[in-house]
Design goal:
The chain is built from nine helices and ten strands. The chain has 252 residues and is of the alpha/beta class. It folds into two domains: 142 residues, Rossmann fold (3-Layer(aba) Sandwich), CATH 3.40.50.300; 77 residues, no CATH class. 38% of the residues are buried. The structure holds adenosine-5'-triphosphate (ATP).
Length: 252
């Protein structure tokens, strides 16, 4: 097995005195499909933000593609960050622009300002955008205004934008939370297919654990900022899940 894509050693992240993650150790290799599960506030989004460098740790070390993000200049850090694509539940699309502009935003880290500006008038890299849209199953929407699409289609545009970026790893924060079960399964299957085909790594936070069991190769259970278990689905028992989501008993 090659060097890990993500490596966290004793990572703690605090927000104004609140500890969102505490002394987390985690190593994720190329091609893994890792689900982050656990109750609200467990630290799943915080962990994803550490993996893509949106947040830096308060203590400990986060290594992405062999680079310690805290030791890099902003420019070097951006170069590493471009290799990590993130799909958010709120898709962060500019909905009054056509789909192609939103997909092309995946190039922005690499394009010059002039090319980016020019692309607003004359879309560049049409073929690449069209291929990405075909991969997510909405090839015909290339020139449609983004706000004319359904929520599920907009989610696919967000994934196409990440594909154009051609990242080594895809992170997804609750990507199926607003979808009905049929569309949620469809999207999970799509994310698996896209990452499996190209050997990309997938790290995905999920509220609905059924999808984690069905589609991921590894489940990381987070509770109160700590990893409670880290195992393949076949080794995760009902008792472990029950314990993960257990409500705290109020102190009387
Ligand atoms: N920017 C922030 N400022 C202050 N506190 C934060 C910030 N981001 C997260 N937190 C806190 O850190 C803890 C972990 O939050 P996080 O969003 O990572 O959890 P989560 O497991 O993703 O929850 P959910 O499933 O509800 O999205 C929570 O107590 C949250 O309130």
């Amino acid at each position: 097995m090659g060097p890990p894509i993500f490596y966290l050693s004793q990572v703690t992240r605090q927000f104004q005195g609140l500890t969102a993650l505490a002394e987390v150790n985690l190593s994720i290799a190329a091609g893994e499909r890792v689900a982050l599960i656990g109750p609200s506030g467990a630290g799943k989004s915080t962990l994803l933000s550490l993996l893509n460098g949106t947040l830096l740790p308060s203590a400990g070390q986060v290594t992405v593609l062999g680079q310690d993000l805290r030791r890099l200049s902003p420019r070097q850090r951006r170069r590493v960050q471009r290799q990590i694509g993130t799909v958010y539940q709120q898709h962060h699309l500019v909905t009054n622009l056509s789909v192609i502009h939103n997909v092309n935003a995946g190039h922005l880290g690499r394009w010059s300002l002039a090319k980016a500006a020019w692309s607003l008038l004359w879309p560049q890299s049409v073929e690449i955008a069209a291929r990405a849209l075909a991969q997510v199953g909405i090839a015909e929407k290339l020139y449609v205004r983004t706000d004319r699409l359904s929520g599920g289609e907009q989610q696919r545009v967000a994934i196409a934008r990440v594909l154009v970026q051609d990242p080594v790893a895809i992170l997804a924060d609750e990507p199926i939370a607003s979808l009905d079960p049929a569309r949620a399964h469809d999207l999970m299957a799509l994310l698996c297919r896209l990452t499996e085909q190209s050997g990309k790594t997938l790290v995905i936070s999920l509220h609905d654990i059924e999808y984690a069991f069905q589609y991921c190769t590894r489940l990381v259970g987070l509770r109160q900022g700590q990893i409670q278990f880290d195992a393949p689905p076949a080794q995760v028992t009902d008792a472990m899940i029950h314990e993960l989501y257990r409500l705290e008993q109020p102190v009387l």
